[in-house]
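$ ./design --mode recover --in tokens.txt
reading tokens...
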């Protein structure tokens, strides 16, 4: 069963800067990984392994 939570965060300015930096880094890594998968698919017609099998 999936569930969702709504969370509201009231941070000060230093925390807001830190969280913005952290989420920005995560977004950068996501975009680079997505670009690598896209390139692998269109150039070689193959998929890169996903991290899901590695978690088991």
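writing sequence...
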């Amino acid at each position: 069963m999936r569930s969702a939570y709504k969370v509201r965060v009231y941070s000060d300015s230093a925390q807001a800067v830190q969280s913005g930096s952290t989420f920005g880094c995560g977004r950068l890594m996501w975009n680079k990984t997505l670009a690598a998968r896209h390139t692998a698919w269109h150039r070689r017609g193959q998929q890169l392994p996903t991290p899901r099998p590695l978690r088991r």
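exit 0
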